Amino acid sequence: MGKFFHLRFIVNLRKPVLREGSLAMVIVKRLVLALAMVSMIGLFGGARAQSAIGHTDKLVGIEVSPGIVDADQNIRFGVAFVGQASGALPGLFAASANYSPAAPGPGVTNSVIGGFWAITVIRNGRLAGTLYGHITGGAAVWNSTGTMATVIIELNITGGTKTFLGVTGGGTFNGILDHTPLLRRRPPTITGNLNLTF
């Protein structure tokens, strides 16, 4: 049969319970060392395990502002879009982009030169938080009639709220900007996939 031993600590307020060199002190030191090692493994092992994860959403929205044109610089500032997101981060999105040249048209490529974006995530009817950041680049390539553009947007994540507090990362939006609703006096539409990694 195996040997068992019991540690008994006698509470004596005049003498320390654990004395240097005692068996109890050796066991406590080893226990503290083991806990410290487990904590370090958790810290460093957890950091490795928490690599960036991709999140994909389908965006469907409308253009709510055509922005303002700076004719001297040939830049359109503040073209704004809002809409719904469904997928890994369901909720609402908003974006404001700047591009040049200022006028879209047949066969034109507008270079996206900045802007801002945000997505508010709603899960089970409750606000999970908001992710936000900058638009860092991209392009809108118009078809031969100037009615539809293939849009590629690069963006970064600079922060978030609630569940996404402290989140950073990046992503892309790939979609279609459709100006044909303008013919019916309706706002242009935008649809596509938002891919975020954080």
What does this structure look like?
With 198 residues, the protein is mostly beta strands. The protein is built from one helix and ten strands, in the order αββββββββββ.
- Coarse shape: globular
Distance between the termini: 54 Å
Biggest β-sheet description: 8 strands, antiparallel, barrel
Portion in helices: 10-25%
Rg value: 29 Å
Tell me what portion of residues adopts beta-strand conformation: over 45%
Could you name the ranges where pLDDT drops below 50 across 5 or more consecutive residues?
A: 1-18, 34-49
Query: Strand tally, please?
Result: 10
The count of helical stretches stands at: 1
Q: Numbering strands along the chain, what is their spatial order in the largest sheet?
A: 1-3-4-5-6-7-9-10
SSE pattern: HEEEEEEEEEE
Q: Helices and strands in order, then pairings?
A:
Blueprint: H1 23-49, E1 54-65, E2 68-70, E3 75-87, E4 91-100, E5 109-123, E6 126-142, E7 148-157, E8 159-160, E9 169-178, E10 189-197
Antiparallel strand pairs: 1-3, 1-10, 2-3, 3-4, 4-5, 5-6, 6-7, 6-8, 7-9, 9-10
Quick structural overview:
This protein has 198 residues and is mainly beta. The protein is 14% helix and 51% strand.
